[in-house]
Structure formats: structure tokens, C-alpha cells
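Dear Dr. L.,

I hope this message finds you well. Following up on our conversation about the binding site, I have prepared a predicted three-dimensional model of the protein together with NDP. For your records, I am including the exact sequence and ligand specification that went into the calculation, followed by the C-alpha cells. Please feel free to forward this to your student if that is useful.
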Amino acid sequence: MATAALRTAVVTGASSGIGAATARRLAAEGYHVVLTARRADRIEALAAELTAAGHEATAYALDVTDRAAVDAFAAFLDRFPSVNVLVNNAGGALGADPVATGDPDDWRRMYEVNVLGVLHTTQALLPALTASGDGTVVVVSSTAGHGVYEGGAGYVAAKHGAHVLAETLRLEIVGRPVRVIEIAPGMVRTDEFAVTRFRGDQEKAARVYEGVAEPLTAEDVADTIGWAVTRPPHVNIDLLVVRPRAQASNTKVHREL
Ligand code: NDP
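The resulting structure of the complex is given below.
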């Protein structure tokens, strides 16, 4: 097994929100973090910040929906002594339309990033994760992967897909030295998630969190990822559902209005 100093953790979607917080957390845990996302400037700035703070970090611009690019990324990782952790965090929602009027193109794009993106990186990195002798695949799904809500079907369907991928992979690779951990967060207030969902409409995005005393933060979710990943290798946290106290289910949220 590689020593702690040589262990490498790849985080997808590390340019903002949960992914950036997770990269910070895993760097603090002693991993060499490889930050990926489409916005190179963001991940380069975060890698520079982490490096200046004495951590080890590398930025690599990557669109997880582009299989050829993901394969090239896997080849790039050959220069690291081992690849120990893959955090599949890149993803998101587009729109909140009912099934009757939802845009099929939104559904397609959500499936591409939330399901096929996870599939691409997991398939491409699984050989290296296995070869490390102590690999971990994390899938950041959502409570949307475990229950429905009105106006959410496209995202809910995609996140159910991510959940199914994680659960099936765990069955299929049992006996190999790779854990499969699913983290399913509820409401998390990040800078971009709801703004992206509502295509830049800040007011609609703000309404998601209106009156909710304390939605989860990106750091709260990164904390659960950091905890799950740093359990001893024989301990597999299959599924961790984490919500703010004010949210009892996808559709039951306490708002102080
Ligand atoms: P953000 O919108 O802040 O982060 C999404 C990240 O994914 C960005 O870094 C973005 O980077 C990256 N990304 C999007 N598309 C691609 C792509 N095609 N290739 C590579 N990277 C991509 O949202 P959050 O931090 O809130 O969400 C992170 C994850 O957590 C997502 O999977 C989301 O579905 C999930 N989640 C979020 C919840 C919430 O309430 N916020 C709740 C439950 C789950 P870039 O644009 O630079 O490529």
C-alpha cells in the first residue's frame, strides 16, 4: 500500500461548491489532490492556493461527458505512484419543469453528466484504483437519487441512475481492494447549484433556500466525504444520507417565513 504522503485523490467538479470543499478537505488529510472541472482557471487557482498552503495539488481541465478526454486523463494519471480515491462529484440539475413539459434536452444533459460522467471516470480509473491495493470510488448522488419530488423528475431520474451505478458496482467488484461509497446530500446551499438549475435566475435560485435556517454547506458535505474516505480500508460506508435538520424529506422542509 502507498504511504499517506503518496496517496492521490481525484475530485471531479472541483471548480466550485462541494467539489472544491472536498478537494480542500482531502488535501488537508494528506492526499495529493487532482482537481478536475471544465473551468481551468478555477481549478488552477485552487491548486495554487493549496500548494501555497503546503499541500500537494494538480489541476487538470476535464469534461467528464467526453469519454476520449477522460481516457486521456486516466493516461495522465500514470505519472502518479498510485491513484487511491476518485470522488465523482461533477453533476447538477437543469430546470424544474413537470414531466409534461420538461425539455428532453435538459434530461439528456443531466443523464450525461450525472450518470455517464460517473461511468466514464469510474471505468477509466478503476484499473489504477484496483492496482493501488486500497482504492475508493465515491459517488456524490443526492437524496434525489432516493426519492421523487414534483418538478424534479429529470434530475431525480439521473441521480437514481448514479445510485444504481454505485450499488451495482459494489456488487460486481466485491473481493477486489476497492470500496464504493455513495454520499447522498439533501439541501446544500452552494454558490452555483441552484443558479445553474434556473439558468442564471438569481431570484428563483434564492427561493430554494428561502426561510431555511441552515441548509447544509459544501464544507458539511466535504466533511462526510472526508470521514467516509478516511475509515480503515476494510470499512465501506455504503451509503450516507445527509440533510440539514430543517429538511425531513425531499418535500418536507421547515421554512421560517
Ligand atoms: P456546483 O454547481 O457548485 O458544482 C458542480 C460542479 O460540477 C462544478 O465544479 C462544475 O464545474 C462541475 N461540472 C458540471 N458539469 C461538468 C462536466 N460536464 N464535466 C466536468 N465537470 C462538470 O454544485 P454543488 O457543489 O452544489 O454540487 C456538486 C454535486 O453535488 C453535484 O453532483 C450535485 O448534483 C450534487 N448535489 C448537490 C446538492 C445541492 O443542494 N447543492 C444536493 C445533493 C447533491 P465546471 O462548470 O467548471 O465544469
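In brief: Residues 8-246 form a domain with the Rossmann fold fold (CATH 3.40.50.720).

With kind regards,
A. P.
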